[in-house]
Request: fold
Amino acid sequence: MPRRSIRPPQDGAPPDIEQRIEAMLAAGETIQAVTAAEAWRAVAQRGPLAERARAAIALAHAQTRQERFQQAMQTADRALALARRSGDGRAIALALLRRATANMSFEPEEAATDASEAARRFETLGDVARTGQALR
Reply:
């Protein structure tokens, strides 16, 4: 598969790393997605809590796609703690969703609780697509 670059576009606008990681995962490029998410997380360590949470959320998503569920759970737990500390509602909902997905094989009842809370939060935010995703 072709490698995707995470360099800024030619017009100089900064890349939306979150969307690029999602695109990599959609294309089945899990190794590249993990690499990009790990790099983002390293850079975000010097930034605001919400940015650190979003980077960890992306990494947990990529780890889950690689079926590294234990790692994904640990990463999602850290992401949720950061998101809660930041007060970013979208990040909290995404961290709950990522934790639910990673935990589905181990603790289905706990995963269902996280997914339900994520769905409620997404609904409050008006994010219909993510609400549906959390309810699956």
User: Anything to note?
Assistant: The two ends are 29 Å apart (CA to CA). DSSP finds seven helices and no strands in the chain. The CA atoms of residues 45 and 133 lie 29 Å apart.
